[in-house]
Amino acid sequence: MVTIIQRMRKLKTLLAIRLGPGAAVLPNDVKRIHLEFAHKLNDGHFGARKFWRNHLPRLKYHNPAVSMTINRSADQTGPATLTVFFAPPPPPPRPSSSSNPPSASPAPSSSTSTATSPSEHTPFDRAETIDMKHKHESDILSQLLSITQATPVVATPDEVVELRQLEDQRKRSEQDALMMAGVNEKRRREQALLQQARGSVAENEAVA
After folding, report:
1. Which residues pair with 96 in a beta bridge?
2. Among 10, 5, 23, 41, which Cα is nearest to 133's?
3. Secondary structure element (H or E) that encloses residue 38, with its range
4. If we measure between CA atoms, which residue out of 135, 85, 137 comes closest to residue 111?
5. Which residues pair with 83 in a beta bridge?
6. Spacing of C-alpha 43 from chain mean position
């Protein structure tokens, strides 16, 4: 029983990062996504923080080669923005030459730098910025998917079965919790009645 519960918990964790809002594959021309918002939630930074917490991990999971950087400021009145940097178009093909073999392309890398200067990262052709201030995280995600033309990840047939199993397990857990709550409440009532009865007996003995 413990093994089944542990397996379901691991499965739930894996599906939570693979599926849901933010699970999307970005096109090849998206090279970097940079978020900038304040540390605290007030003054319109709530949606930006929720997007970072809930949606960005799924986006990174499906796009490991895309650099995703965050700069959090102590200035609550400052901006809350999400900027997408697009790569320049590929150069036209050059005639092949036996004396000049083609050079290998550099491997994609991920950056955790908080720098906002694009020159410190992959060269870009254009940038699109989303104003996240006072916006819900779902609205921020919708704008990002629209700007990038990302492809949402759809659950496979096997994942649909796994999700159904998780939902069934969740319902059984709720039913078990309600049943245990009823048992515990009944036990508390019985204990209260027993203590009340003992108190009455003690009073009668004292009077006698």
Report:
1. none
2. 41
3. strand 30-38
4. 85
5. 34, 129
6. 22
- Residue 151 main-chain phi, psi, to 5 deg: -105, 115
CA 141 to chain centre: 12
Asked if 136 and 47 count as a contact pair (C-beta separation under 8 A), the reply is yes
pLDDT per residue over 96-152, tens digit each? 655 554 444 343 333 434 444 444 555 667 899 999 999 999 999 999 999 999 999
- Residues whose CB falls within 8 Å of the CB of residue 6, separated by 6 or more in sequence, listed in order: none
Q: Rounded to an integer, what distance in angstroms lies between the CA atom of residue 83 and that of residue 91?
A: 24
* SS3 call for 35: strand
Asked whether the CA dihedral 34, 40, 43, 46 is positive or negative, the reply is positive
Residue tagged 């996240």 (tokens): 132
Flag the least confident range among 37-41, 52-56, 163-167.
163-167
CA 172 to chain CA mean position, Å: 26
- Check residues 90 and 86 and name the one with the higher pLDDT: 86
Please tell me the predicted confidence (pLDDT) of residue 5. 61
Please state, in angstroms and rounded to a whole number, the distance separating the CA atoms of residues 19 and 58. 7
CA dist 43 and 132 (Å) reads 11
